[in-house]
Amino acid sequence: VSGASVAGPVLAYWLARYGFEVTVVERAPELRKTGGHAVDLFEPAMEISQRMGVLPAIEELATGTETMTVLREGVARPVSINVGRIFRSSIRRHVEIMRDDLSELYFDAGRDQVEYLFDNSITAIGDDGEVSFEHAPPRRFDIVVGADGLHSNVRRLVFGPESEFSTFIGGHLAVLSVPKDMAEDGVIHAHLGPGRMAAVYTARKLDDARVIFLFRTDTELDYHHRDVPRQRELLREAFAGQHQRVDRFLAELDDTPAFYFDSITQLRLDTWSRGRVTLVGDAGYCPGPAVGGSTSLAVVGAYVLAGELAEAGGDHRRAFPAYERDMADMVLRSRSFAVGAAKRLVPGSRAGTWALANVGRLLGVLPAGVIRKVMKTGNSIGQVHAAMPVRDYMPSSK
Ligand SMILES: Cc1cc2nc3c(=O)[nH]c(=O)nc-3n(C[C@H](O)[C@H](O)[C@H](O)COP(=O)(O)OP(=O)(O)OC[C@H]3O[C@@H](n4cnc5c(N)ncnc54)[C@H](O)[C@@H]3O)c2cc1C
User: Fold this and answer.
1) pLDDT tens digits, residue range 72-93?
2) pTM of the model
3) Are the CB atoms for 387 and 297 separated by under 8 Å?
4) d(CA 58, CA 95)
């Protein structure tokens, strides 16, 4: 398994539980602990986490975000949205947690049964399962799984360049770490203008705060993924003059210990498997970071893949098509939700920003039954995911 973030450790855990021998190779020198952002787990992913015995710890580390304030450009008074209540009223189960905390919990759950190789990466995969590594001698494996994220190395080696599968869905996003006192526990403060949003939040157990920037562009911006100075410049240009507070976030850009910048792209592969290689999580079917519930999708995908492999006695020729069939509906629905969400989250017009802020405010004060009805028509990602049943693959799945 290549990648030890969310999909990788969940897959490794379940494979080991079913009796497979598993090796996970991770490019980072250790489990990432400084980057990351708040991610969501919906019903099926929570059920799987419960079966792994980590749900109480996940709930313990939940970010605890209850309120979102939205300050629109050119408007003096912010609107306050009761996001906690909207979530609780519209979906049965949901938790928000920092991705790195989640990753550590999944890693800890399986670490004693799984071999982890950090600071390493796959350089070649032969048809016979021979895998070459950057810093280790080649070894042979029955099955190779790319769980190495949106810019997957395994996918590139086996399926070809990313550009063949990725579709730009209308925006860019950035995350940076800022001092904790720039945010408030339990509250996301968002600054919203036509085509751009900057939001700052922290969590009880975080030592810092995170700012997430989302902005719309008609086409993908021109930058190299390793050219951080250029990315910072693009971010400054996109948010110039939005608000004094946003200027203060931008002033942290040169000192921040963690910075992330990417376009919002969606992966569309007809199949995620070739020979004895398959893909899981963002590597295979990222609907778009931050817009399509991709963390939950990664957890469910990993569980389903392990289950199908167990049922097929390790025969990938039977397991991989079954895995793709089981996941197809959830992937397609997440994809189509994400395309709409990328636009809805950051409206292009002033009227759109007004509507977003005020519909949100209204939703937060409506009776729970009405919220449920409204969200159902809007088809929230939590409801899309809740439609995915968690199958029992083996007696030991429960
Ligand atoms: C800014 C941002 C905001 C987001 N917000 C949300 C949100 O609100 N809600 C939500 O559900 N999701 C959100 N996401 C998405 C979420 O982070 C991912 O969907 C989730 O982490 C996917 O998990 P994964 O394990 O498939 O991939 P990743 O988390 O991307 O992990 C891939 C792993 O592979 C490793 N790796 C990479 N290359 C190699 C290599 N060559 N060899 C070995 N290892 C390698 C990486 O170091 C990493 O550990 C957001 C993502 C971003 C970037």
Assistant:
1) 998 889 999 988 888 888 778 8
2) 0.93
3) no
4) 8
